[in-house]
Design brief:
The chain has nine helices and eight strands. It has 211 residues and is of the alpha/beta class. The radius of gyration is 16 Å and the shape is globular.
């Protein structure tokens, strides 16, 4: 069994590897990364044709490795899945879909993000499946770069502040990015707090077993 992981940041590596080790250690993980994609997205503010072409090269490389499936790990690029899937014979999974499917069990959903472009990608998915769902979003844009700079303590403190602000306003809180998953262990909330990596690994494993 083999899963190709497609990354736009290094911060997704440990969370998804830890999740697969816990859920399905027998799966071989292949990593395909282009960290310039996030810079391009932040500069443009949207998924441009240039970003789509660059991202498609990663998907092509991943598909050529003949994995059982391709798993994205960066939420902001998830809309490209629907564009590129028809061009790829290998099943592609969004980074967040397993987590968001859980979130849809609740009426009021709160999103916590550190990349400005991320919430739109999640909101589109949620509203396409449940048009009347209530969504609140809090973003502290750009603080993902604190992780790149080795300032995890400051990053985590600001994420906890967002979680505290959201708690009590919604029925479930979603940590939108893999880079936020570790903060879930630092807080206690009055509502469920969802993270993506383990739900993602479980969905990949179930898909492979059913092939």
């Amino acid at each position: 069994m083999k899963v190709a992981l497609v990354h736009a940041t290094t911060t997704a590596l440990n969370p998804i590897e830890d999740a697969f080790r816990k859920i399905a250690p027998e799966i071989d993980l292949l990593h395909f990364m282009d960290t310039h994609l996030l810079s391009m997205l932040e500069e443009s503010g949207s998924l441009t044709p240039e970003i789509a072409r660059r991202f498609s090269k990663l998907i092509s490389l991943a598909a050529e490795s003949r994995p059982d499936c391709i798993q994205l790990t960066c939420s902001a690029f998830n809309p490209l899945t629907s564009i590129l899937q028809p061009l790829c014979r290998v099943k592609m999974f969004r980074s967040d879909e397993a987590m968001l499917d859980k979130a849809l069990q609740y009426e009021r959903i709160g999103l916590i993000s550190t990349v400005k472009e991320t919430p739109d990608a999640l909101i589109d998915y949620l509203q396409a499946r449940q048009p009347n769902c209530s969504i609140e979003s809090i973003v502290d844009p750009g603080i993902i770069h604190l992780l790149f700079q080795g300032k995890q303590k400051e990053h985590d403190e600001r994420v906890r502040t967002m979680i505290d602000e959201m708690d009590g306003k919604v029925d479930v809180i979603v940590l939108s990015q893999y880079s936020l998953a570790h903060v879930a262990n630092q807080v206690e909330t009055s509502v469920p707090l969802l993270i993506a990596p383990e739900a993602t690994a479980k969905r990949c494993f179930e898909y492979i077993l059913q092939k």
